[in-house]
Specification:
The chain has 13 helices and nine strands. With about 290 residues, the chain is α/β, with parallel strands linked by helices. Helix 10 packs antiparallel against helix 11 (about 240-255).
Length: about 290
Amino acid sequence: MIVITGGTGKLGSQIVGHLLDRVPAAEIGVSVREPARAAELAERGVRVRRGDFADPASLAEAFEGAAQVLVVSTDSTGETARAHHIAAIDAAREAGVKRVLYTSHQAAAGDSLFAPMPDHAATERHLAAAGSPFTVLRNGFYAATVPLLLGEALRTGELIAPADGPVSWTAHADLAEAAAIILAEEGRFDGPTPPLTAPAALDLDDVAGLLTELTGRPIRRVVAGDDEWVAGLTGHGVPEAQASLLLGMFHAARRGEFAVTGPVLEELLGRPATPLRAVLATAVDHYERGV
Protein backbone atom coordinates (compact mmCIF):
# COMPACT_ATOMS: atom_id res chain seq x y z
CA MET A 1 0.00 0.00 0.00
CA ILE A 2 1.02 3.59 -0.72
CA VAL A 3 0.01 6.17 1.91
CA ILE A 4 -0.03 9.92 1.23
CA THR A 5 -0.09 12.38 4.12
CA GLY A 6 -2.16 15.52 3.67
CA GLY A 7 -4.24 13.68 1.10
CA THR A 8 -6.87 16.44 1.01
CA GLY A 9 -4.38 19.31 0.64
CA LYS A 10 -3.55 21.21 -2.53
CA LEU A 11 -0.62 19.00 -3.50
CA GLY A 12 -1.60 15.78 -1.75
CA SER A 13 -5.06 15.62 -3.28
CA GLN A 14 -3.64 15.98 -6.78
CA ILE A 15 -1.03 13.29 -6.10
CA VAL A 16 -3.79 10.90 -5.01
CA GLY A 17 -5.80 11.78 -8.11
CA HIS A 18 -2.91 10.93 -10.43
CA LEU A 19 -2.05 7.84 -8.43
CA LEU A 20 -5.61 6.54 -8.92
CA ASP A 21 -4.90 6.55 -12.66
CA ARG A 22 -1.94 4.23 -12.11
CA VAL A 23 -2.69 1.79 -9.30
CA PRO A 24 -5.88 0.27 -7.84
CA ALA A 25 -7.66 2.37 -5.24
CA ALA A 26 -7.36 -0.47 -2.73
CA GLU A 27 -3.58 0.01 -2.80
CA ILE A 28 -3.78 3.70 -1.86
CA GLY A 29 -4.26 5.22 1.58
CA VAL A 30 -4.40 8.77 2.88
CA SER A 31 -3.44 10.10 6.28
CA VAL A 32 -5.52 13.19 7.03
CA ARG A 33 -6.33 15.27 10.08
CA GLU A 34 -10.04 15.33 9.21
CA PRO A 35 -11.20 12.04 7.64
CA ALA A 36 -14.62 13.51 6.86
CA ARG A 37 -12.99 15.75 4.27
CA ALA A 38 -11.78 12.63 2.42
CA ALA A 39 -15.22 11.04 2.12
CA GLU A 40 -15.10 11.17 -1.68
CA LEU A 41 -11.79 9.29 -1.69
CA ALA A 42 -13.23 6.68 0.66
CA GLU A 43 -16.16 6.20 -1.74
CA ARG A 44 -13.66 5.51 -4.51
CA GLY A 45 -12.03 2.77 -2.43
CA VAL A 46 -9.07 4.69 -0.98
CA ARG A 47 -8.26 3.82 2.64
CA VAL A 48 -8.85 6.92 4.77
CA ARG A 49 -7.40 7.13 8.28
CA ARG A 50 -6.77 9.95 10.69
CA GLY A 51 -3.16 10.98 11.00
CA ASP A 52 -1.87 14.20 12.54
CA PHE A 53 1.81 15.14 12.63
CA ALA A 54 1.15 16.91 15.94
CA ASP A 55 -0.25 13.65 17.36
CA PRO A 56 2.40 11.04 16.47
CA ALA A 57 0.41 8.24 18.09
CA SER A 58 -2.26 8.68 15.42
CA LEU A 59 0.25 7.97 12.65
CA ALA A 60 0.85 4.34 13.61
CA GLU A 61 -2.65 3.35 12.46
CA ALA A 62 -2.55 5.72 9.48
CA PHE A 63 0.66 4.08 8.19
CA GLU A 64 -0.23 0.47 9.08
CA GLY A 65 0.53 -1.97 6.27
CA ALA A 66 2.13 0.65 4.00
CA ALA A 67 5.06 -0.24 1.77
CA GLN A 68 5.62 3.42 0.87
CA VAL A 69 4.66 6.62 2.69
CA LEU A 70 4.90 10.02 1.07
CA VAL A 71 5.31 12.72 3.72
CA VAL A 72 3.98 15.96 2.24
CA SER A 73 5.77 18.84 3.96
CA THR A 74 3.71 21.14 6.18
CA ASP A 75 3.11 24.87 5.83
CA SER A 76 4.79 25.51 9.19
CA THR A 77 8.38 26.68 9.58
CA GLY A 78 11.12 26.33 12.17
CA GLU A 79 11.05 23.84 15.01
CA THR A 80 7.36 23.08 14.49
CA ALA A 81 7.91 22.03 10.88
CA ARG A 82 10.96 19.95 11.71
CA ALA A 83 9.23 18.22 14.62
CA HIS A 84 6.22 17.38 12.46
CA HIS A 85 8.28 16.01 9.60
CA ILE A 86 10.50 13.95 11.91
CA ALA A 87 7.47 12.57 13.75
CA ALA A 88 5.97 11.39 10.47
CA ILE A 89 9.22 9.88 9.22
CA ASP A 90 9.86 8.05 12.49
CA ALA A 91 6.29 6.77 12.64
CA ALA A 92 6.59 5.44 9.10
CA ARG A 93 9.76 3.56 9.91
CA GLU A 94 8.29 2.18 13.13
CA ALA A 95 5.33 0.94 11.09
CA GLY A 96 7.71 -1.08 8.92
CA VAL A 97 7.42 1.07 5.80
CA LYS A 98 9.96 0.01 3.17
CA ARG A 99 10.49 3.46 1.64
CA VAL A 100 9.74 6.95 2.96
CA LEU A 101 9.36 9.77 0.45
CA TYR A 102 9.32 13.48 1.28
CA THR A 103 8.32 16.58 -0.68
CA SER A 104 11.35 18.83 -0.36
CA HIS A 105 12.56 21.74 -2.50
CA GLN A 106 15.28 22.21 -5.09
CA ALA A 107 16.77 24.95 -2.88
CA ALA A 108 16.87 22.95 0.36
CA ALA A 109 20.00 24.07 2.23
CA GLY A 110 21.00 24.79 5.80
CA ASP A 111 22.30 28.25 4.91
CA SER A 112 19.35 29.38 2.79
CA LEU A 113 17.99 32.87 3.32
CA PHE A 114 14.40 31.60 3.04
CA ALA A 115 13.23 29.99 6.29
CA PRO A 116 11.52 26.87 4.87
CA MET A 117 14.69 25.75 3.09
CA PRO A 118 16.75 24.94 6.22
CA ASP A 119 13.69 23.03 7.48
CA HIS A 120 13.72 20.92 4.33
CA ALA A 121 17.47 20.38 4.68
CA ALA A 122 17.09 19.24 8.29
CA THR A 123 14.35 16.81 7.30
CA GLU A 124 16.51 15.42 4.51
CA ARG A 125 19.36 14.86 6.97
CA HIS A 126 17.04 12.97 9.30
CA LEU A 127 15.89 10.76 6.44
CA ALA A 128 19.44 10.01 5.35
CA ALA A 129 20.72 9.31 8.88
CA ALA A 130 18.50 6.24 9.37
CA GLY A 131 20.15 4.34 6.55
CA SER A 132 16.90 2.86 5.20
CA PRO A 133 15.54 3.51 1.69
CA PHE A 134 14.16 7.00 1.11
CA THR A 135 13.41 9.39 -1.72
CA VAL A 136 13.46 13.17 -1.49
CA LEU A 137 11.46 15.01 -4.14
CA ARG A 138 13.44 18.17 -4.90
CA ASN A 139 10.47 20.17 -6.17
CA GLY A 140 10.68 23.53 -7.89
CA PHE A 141 9.10 26.61 -6.33
CA TYR A 142 5.31 26.46 -6.60
CA ALA A 143 4.13 28.64 -9.48
CA ALA A 144 0.89 29.31 -7.57
CA THR A 145 2.96 31.70 -5.44
CA VAL A 146 3.35 34.20 -8.28
CA PRO A 147 -0.25 35.47 -8.38
CA LEU A 148 0.09 36.16 -4.65
CA LEU A 149 3.05 38.45 -5.35
CA LEU A 150 1.23 40.64 -7.86
CA GLY A 151 -0.45 42.91 -5.32
CA GLU A 152 -2.49 45.52 -7.21
CA ALA A 153 -0.52 45.15 -10.44
CA LEU A 154 -3.51 44.20 -12.59
CA ARG A 155 -5.41 47.26 -11.35
CA THR A 156 -2.65 49.86 -11.18
CA GLY A 157 -0.26 48.64 -13.89
CA GLU A 158 2.62 48.49 -11.40
CA LEU A 159 4.06 45.26 -10.03
CA ILE A 160 5.65 46.49 -6.80
CA ALA A 161 7.95 44.13 -4.88
CA PRO A 162 11.49 44.00 -3.50
CA ALA A 163 14.45 43.22 -5.75
CA ASP A 164 14.31 39.55 -6.72
CA GLY A 165 16.01 37.00 -8.94
CA PRO A 166 15.12 34.16 -11.32
CA VAL A 167 12.95 31.36 -9.95
CA SER A 168 12.12 27.99 -11.51
CA TRP A 169 8.36 28.41 -11.04
CA THR A 170 6.73 24.98 -11.30
CA ALA A 171 3.06 24.01 -11.32
CA HIS A 172 1.49 21.96 -8.52
CA ALA A 173 -0.21 19.76 -11.10
CA ASP A 174 3.08 18.81 -12.76
CA LEU A 175 4.77 18.05 -9.44
CA ALA A 176 1.77 15.99 -8.30
CA GLU A 177 1.83 13.91 -11.46
CA ALA A 178 5.57 13.37 -11.14
CA ALA A 179 5.17 12.25 -7.52
CA ALA A 180 2.48 9.77 -8.56
CA ILE A 181 4.76 8.36 -11.27
CA ILE A 182 7.63 7.96 -8.81
CA LEU A 183 5.36 6.25 -6.28
CA ALA A 184 3.85 3.92 -8.86
CA GLU A 185 7.29 2.96 -10.18
CA GLU A 186 8.72 2.05 -6.79
CA GLY A 187 12.43 2.62 -6.29
CA ARG A 188 12.89 4.79 -9.37
CA PHE A 189 14.92 7.31 -7.35
CA ASP A 190 17.03 6.56 -4.31
CA GLY A 191 17.87 9.53 -2.11
CA PRO A 192 17.35 13.10 -3.40
CA THR A 193 16.00 13.41 -6.93
CA PRO A 194 17.53 15.82 -9.42
CA PRO A 195 15.68 19.18 -9.46
CA LEU A 196 12.06 18.64 -10.48
CA THR A 197 11.42 21.99 -12.11
CA ALA A 198 10.02 23.74 -15.13
CA PRO A 199 12.76 24.37 -17.72
CA ALA A 200 12.93 28.16 -17.33
CA ALA A 201 13.71 30.45 -14.39
CA LEU A 202 11.87 33.78 -14.52
CA ASP A 203 12.05 36.91 -12.39
CA LEU A 204 9.39 39.53 -11.76
CA ASP A 205 10.56 41.60 -14.73
CA ASP A 206 9.64 38.58 -16.84
CA VAL A 207 6.32 38.29 -15.00
CA ALA A 208 5.51 41.94 -15.74
CA GLY A 209 6.27 41.28 -19.41
CA LEU A 210 3.97 38.26 -19.49
CA LEU A 211 1.19 40.21 -17.80
CA THR A 212 1.59 42.99 -20.36
CA GLU A 213 1.13 40.45 -23.16
CA LEU A 214 -1.82 38.74 -21.50
CA THR A 215 -3.74 41.91 -20.59
CA GLY A 216 -2.83 44.09 -23.54
CA ARG A 217 -2.01 46.81 -21.00
CA PRO A 218 1.46 47.90 -19.85
CA ILE A 219 2.44 46.36 -16.50
CA ARG A 220 5.58 47.97 -15.11
CA ARG A 221 7.94 46.31 -12.64
CA VAL A 222 8.70 48.64 -9.71
CA VAL A 223 11.40 47.70 -7.21
CA ALA A 224 10.45 48.58 -3.64
CA GLY A 225 12.89 48.92 -0.76
CA ASP A 226 12.83 45.99 1.64
CA ASP A 227 11.74 48.02 4.67
CA GLU A 228 9.16 49.92 2.65
CA TRP A 229 7.65 46.68 1.33
CA VAL A 230 7.50 45.03 4.75
CA ALA A 231 5.92 48.18 6.22
CA GLY A 232 3.31 48.08 3.47
CA LEU A 233 2.40 44.49 4.33
CA THR A 234 2.21 45.06 8.06
CA GLY A 235 0.18 48.19 7.43
CA HIS A 236 -2.38 45.99 5.72
CA GLY A 237 -2.56 43.57 8.63
CA VAL A 238 0.08 41.01 7.72
CA PRO A 239 1.89 39.87 10.89
CA GLU A 240 5.46 41.15 11.02
CA ALA A 241 6.88 37.61 11.32
CA GLN A 242 5.06 36.55 8.16
CA ALA A 243 6.19 39.67 6.29
CA SER A 244 9.80 39.03 7.30
CA LEU A 245 9.55 35.41 6.19
CA LEU A 246 8.27 36.53 2.78
CA LEU A 247 11.09 39.05 2.48
CA GLY A 248 13.51 36.16 2.99
CA MET A 249 12.16 34.62 -0.19
CA PHE A 250 13.27 37.71 -2.13
CA HIS A 251 16.68 37.69 -0.43
CA ALA A 252 17.16 34.05 -1.41
CA ALA A 253 16.02 34.72 -4.98
CA ARG A 254 18.55 37.56 -5.29
CA ARG A 255 21.27 35.10 -4.29
CA GLY A 256 20.16 32.73 -7.04
CA GLU A 257 18.92 30.00 -4.72
CA PHE A 258 15.83 29.29 -6.83
CA ALA A 259 17.38 29.61 -10.28
CA VAL A 260 18.24 25.92 -10.66
CA THR A 261 16.37 24.11 -13.44
CA GLY A 262 16.57 20.63 -14.88
CA PRO A 263 15.04 18.31 -17.50
CA VAL A 264 13.96 15.47 -15.19
CA LEU A 265 10.42 16.70 -14.51
CA GLU A 266 9.59 16.87 -18.20
CA GLU A 267 11.25 13.50 -18.75
CA LEU A 268 9.05 11.97 -16.05
CA LEU A 269 5.91 13.57 -17.44
CA GLY A 270 6.72 12.77 -21.06
CA ARG A 271 5.52 16.25 -22.02
CA PRO A 272 6.45 19.91 -21.56
CA ALA A 273 6.00 21.34 -18.07
CA THR A 274 3.23 23.89 -17.54
CA PRO A 275 4.65 27.34 -18.33
CA LEU A 276 4.25 30.21 -15.90
CA ARG A 277 2.36 32.04 -18.64
CA ALA A 278 -0.51 29.54 -18.25
CA VAL A 279 -0.66 30.13 -14.50
CA LEU A 280 -0.72 33.88 -15.03
CA ALA A 281 -3.37 33.57 -17.75
CA THR A 282 -5.66 31.92 -15.21
CA ALA A 283 -4.96 34.69 -12.69
CA VAL A 284 -5.72 37.37 -15.27
CA ASP A 285 -8.94 35.61 -16.26
CA HIS A 286 -10.07 35.40 -12.63
CA TYR A 287 -9.28 39.09 -12.13
CA GLU A 288 -11.18 40.17 -15.24
CA ARG A 289 -14.20 38.05 -14.26
CA GLY A 290 -14.05 39.26 -10.67
CA VAL A 291 -13.54 35.74 -9.33
